[in-house]
Design a protein that fits this description.
This protein is 50% helix and 15% strand. By secondary structure, the chain is an alpha/beta fold. The strands form two sheets. A seven-stranded parallel β-sheet has the order 3-2-1-4-6-7-9, with helices on both faces. Strands 5-8 form a two-stranded parallel sheet. The longest helix has 29 residues.
Amino acid sequence: MSRFNGKVAAITGAASGIGQALAWELADRGADVALCDVNEADLETTAEGVRRRGRKATTRVVDVSDRDAVEAWAEASIAEHGHVDAVVNNAGVTVQDTIADISYEDLEWIVGINFWGVMYGTKAFLPHLVERDTGWVVNVSSIFGMIAFPSQGAYNATKFAVRGFTEALRWEMEGTGVSICSVHPGGIRTNIVRNARVRRDVDGEASKDQMVARFDRVAKTTPAQAAKVIADGMAKHEPRILIGNDAKLLDTVQRILPKHYGTTLQRIVDLLER
């Protein structure tokens, strides 16, 4: 627990889900936090939870697809806290649509948040971490950054990109005091599907309610459970963190059947939905 005493963690997408839970988990372990999100009201709820735990929390409304906004947040966070020890690039969205039908508007939206947001957050804080020769860059990818799934092509593209970007950075930081970690959650009971843009399912039109109901049946891990796994992984300086038995199972299936995991994957999803 003492590993995080006096540390400062900057977390994107901190108004709900994994970001909110991680802010509280790290506060329980002695860390202060710099938080950002586009949802100001729920962001303040997260901050209040941190303060009730006796730790400092600062907040800023930031669209992570806006480079200037992310860089300004990084500068303000370092100034307000004196230093930052970890950046957790967690903010993410999804689009349910086929590659043939997805609009360029939706592609630009998801890439801006899921990929550029991670790059901006990483590059905004990395010079500070390198100068201090200590800390963490934690980029949240997904199990969908390891396996592809129909109607999630845009999400797959961004999460595969986050994984590649993070793994390259890890090699570049080898021998320094900066730990680089990619996080690959399975089904986590967050608002990502409720906030998704739903256009078309692989089998035809899909309503938001149908998509949410399906996700709720599959998602077995709570944000609090996910946050504990991430914090434990950070403490051990793990380079890759898989969250949930579903993520571990799907990762194994992909390794065993790299060319033919699709059929097996669908069977697993069908079983999880029961």
